[in-house]
Specification:
This protein has 531 residues and is of the alpha+beta class. It is built from 25 helices and nine strands. The strands form two sheets. Strands 4, 5, 6, 7 and 8 form a five-stranded antiparallel β-sheet that branches. Strands 1-9-2-3 form a four-stranded mixed β-sheet. α13 packs antiparallel against α14 and α23 crosses α25.
Length: 531
């Protein structure tokens, strides 16, 4: 039997709402962490994963078994098992096979049972093709590359006034330019920029890429016919629908599940009030990590546990105390995690979660609540401009908090890949009030920069010159400045608030905006963030 297996669990388990009726008990068995409908999960099962993700996976797996998905993949699994065991049968191999089996069963359930033929009707698949046509185009271009943006603008103005591209290209050959002969574009972002431009036409704009400025003439465009890519598109649509449906199902399953947290789990600590010394003892492995973004990530589940066993304000006070003592350099990112955990704790009651925050740690808790709410919502991107502002106005009439709420909406547009960067920018620009539009864009760019923070330094340095390329292509100085401002802030988070290191990293951005990047890092070094 033919079926689709898409091992993309990293996208699926982002709903972590804890129902009010779940139980918490003590046990002497320290290896036990949580029980999900009678299935016990131990520390060994969790390892470095977030406990709520593990619970969500277990709930989906149980639902898959209930619906007979294990029988559908039995033949496929046995074939794989036989092949693996023919070469090795030690404990690690058996554990691998068990994990493989659970993934196989759950994936089949999500992508072949939750997703139906009706979900993949011809109109849906064709719409995806039309919306993403640039992915299926072969574009041949002729271009001239400038290191000086003003020179590129001068060149383009002459084109618009009627001069010929080929003649101008020869004229400008020796003026800090790079002449490129015909070649086929493979970069999907580049291709998207050129979508809708006819052949033998010069693109009416300057494309910024890796600190260079390109004027481009389309030579040839060929599109792969729909019939040749239809099956490929079906697979992508299946993945998107499966992701959405599994999220919705997890929320419903958690409402009726019996989830028991044991006393040594990350949600139930032995002490009802986890003080600073207790926190440091639990997080001693994190404390050995050099003060950086990686260290911040390590602390995340422990702050979640404080929210669940105490309160958001208590967690924020703990974060603030640790910052004051120099254990952590900046509590703002932690406060985002605290806000997201409050939303989960209160079963996605966004108003209750928001009002359980405090203004400590530069209002980050409010940002985290809205970031989690929007990024896990079933809103259509085009609805966010109006629905997001309406939601914020229904939560608070405090002008400062309203701005923080809208800023959180901006974070949510990028978090968990809710919508691409350029869409998110347009959504924020759809907010008519300039103050709130600015707040929304600030959230978008800060969250966008967060995507790059898990990279090692060599990877970051290699990519940083092109981080804001898409934004630069809009030829909007204000938007580009916001983007590079977020880059400077991001470097401070990345380096553990090391100003000199952040300024050094800023030098890898394009020359025009290095000062903006450095100014942002210096501003953050004073203990402030711009939202």
């Amino acid at each position: 039997m033919k079926f689709y297996l898409l091992f993309i669990f990293s996208f699926l388990f982002i709903f972590s709402c804890t129902p009010p009726g779940e139980k918490k008990i003590d046990t002497e068995n320290k290896k036990q962490v949580v029980s999900v409908n009678g299935t016990t999960i131990s520390n060994d099962d969790i390892e470095n994963q977030d406990i709520e993700e593990v619970i969500n996976k277990e709930l989906l797996y149980q639902e898959a078994i209930k619906n007979g998905a294990d029988k559908k993949v039995e033949k496929e699994y046995k074939k794989h098992e036989e092949k693996i065991l023919s070469s090795n049968s030690d404990k690690k191999t058996l554990e691998y096979l068990e994990d493989y089996r659970k993934k196989l069963i759950t994936d089949y359930f999500i992508y072949n049972m939750l997703v139906t033929d009706e979900d993949l009707d011809e109109a849906t698949v064709k719409k995806y093709y039309q919306d993403n046509l640039y992915n299926y185009e072969s574009i041949t271009v002729d271009e001239i590359i400038f290191t000086d943006k003003k020179l590129a603008e001068e060149f383009l103005e002459k084109i618009k006034s009627g001069e010929k591209f080929d003649d101008l290209k020869k004229e400008y050959k020796s003026r800090e330019t790079i002449n490129v002969d015909f070649y086929i574009i493979n970069d999907p972002i580049y291709k998207r920029d050129l979508q809708g431009i006819e052949k033998d036409t010069v693109y009416d704009g300057i494309i910024a890429k890796n600190g260079q400025f390109r004027v481009v003439k389309i030579i040839e465009k060929n599109t792969l016919p729909y019939k040749f890519v239809k099956n490929n598109i079906k697979g992508k649509v299946r993945a998107e629908i499966g992701e959405r449906k599994s999220r919705e199902l997890v929320k419903n399953l958690r409402e009726n599940a019996e989830i028991i947290y044991f006393s040594d789990s990350s949600k139930q600590q032995k002490s009802p009030k986890l003080n600073k010394s207790g926190f440091l003892e639990l997080t001693k492995n994190c404390n050995n990590i050099p003060d950086s973004y990686a260290r911040t990530t390590c602390y995340k589940p422990f702050f979640q546990s404080v929210v669940y066993t105490n309160s958001g304000v208590y967690a924020l006070n703990l974060a603030k105390e640790l910052e004051k003592d120099g254990v952590i350099k900046d509590c703002h990112l932690f406060s985002h995690h605290i806000g997201a955990s409050l939303l989960e704790k209160y079963n996605f009651d966004v108003k209750k979660a928001f009002n359980s925050c405090s203004k400590d740690c530069i209002q980050g808790c409010y940002h985290g609540v809205l970031e989690e709410y929007v990024s896990t919502s079933n809103w259509k991107p085009e609805e966010v401009s109006s629905r997001g502002l309406d939601l914020c106005e229904s939560i608070t009439d405090d002008k400062l908090l309203l701005r923080q709420c809208v800023h959180g909406v901006g974070h949510g547009l990028i978090a968990k890949k809710f919508t691409p960067l350029m869409n998110a920018i347009e959504i924020c620009k759809g907010i008519n009030t300039p103050n709130y539009q600015h707040a929304c864009l600030g959230g978008v760019f800060m969250e966008y920069m967060d995507i790059f923070l898990p990279l090692n330094e060599n990877e970051l340095v290699e990519l940083v010159a092109g981080v804001c390329d898409e934004v630069d292509s809009l030829n909007d100085i204000e938007l580009s400045s916001k983007c590079y401002h977020a880059v400077g802030q991001g470097f401070m988070f990345y380096s553990g608030n090391n100003l000199e290191k952040s300024k050094e990293l800023c030098k890898y951005t394009i020359p025009e905006y290095q000062e903006e990047c450095i100014n942002a890092a210096e501003f953050m070094a004073t203990g402030h963030h711009e939202h």
